Amino acid sequence: MPSEFFKQAALLPFVVESQADSDSEPAELSPPMLNFRDAEVVKTIEEEGLSIFTFDGLRRITGVHQETLSRALVRLEEEGLIARSPEGYHTTAKSKSLARPTLGSLPEKRVQVLHTFLPHSTSLKAIIPALKGRWFGKMRWVGISESQEGTVLKWVADDGSLLIDARFESGQLDVEARIRKDSDLPNAVLAAHQLIGRISAVYASHRPITRQSQLKASLLDTPAM
Q: What percent of the chain has pLDDT over 70?
């Protein structure tokens, strides 16, 4: 019984102020005690700026075994750093208040594939739901990063070798490929252009119908005499 008590107590955040000083001001709690693997997962979520993410997407980015990642996410959920949602998981206010763990990152190269202006006639509220959660080619959905600057949709290759970011900001779209080896560049450019094609198709399907386009369509549908 005593050993079990100390095992549980070791997992709890420690109190910064001593019990003797508790009469002066309320005690503050330190950040949750995370093991190396949990901290690595938190680091990836924070570096990607993920507000919403999927289990499979995070697994492919981190390269962590699915059982290991599952246990890590359970612990992070218990600590109140993440919570389940219909779209997978979402980060909490508590996770945003933590300092970023100081762990080394894998080197990566960023390649901007596209920068363009978006049609003002179509709202992002119609575009983003049509893109999120979708797969294309060998790219798998990861999640969304949202901030005051804009919204970033993220995909990762099924083998975790590259990532594609689509940033929607101030009426503009930037598509960026992220690779760790130069040999992955051709696949990254191909994947980025596949995404661009998908985005173009979504915009075309949500293009508002004008009176002129309706007239043109009716003329094309009129049978020849």
A: 72
Domains belonging to the chain, first-starting first, are 1-98 (1.10.10.10), 109-205 (3.30.310)
How far is the C-alpha of 159 from the C-alpha of 137, rounded, in Å?
A: 12
C-alpha 167/C-alpha 115 separation (Å) is: 10
- Reading the block at residue 24, the tokens are 């002066």
> What type of residue sits at position 222?
T
Residue 8 in 3-state DSSP?
Answer: helix
Residues 60 and 161: their CA atoms lie apart, in Å, by 9
What are the DSSP E strand ranges found in 118-171? 139-146, 151-157, 162-169
pLDDT confidence of residue 136: 87
Q: Distance between CA atoms of 91 and 157, rounded to whole angstroms?
A: 23
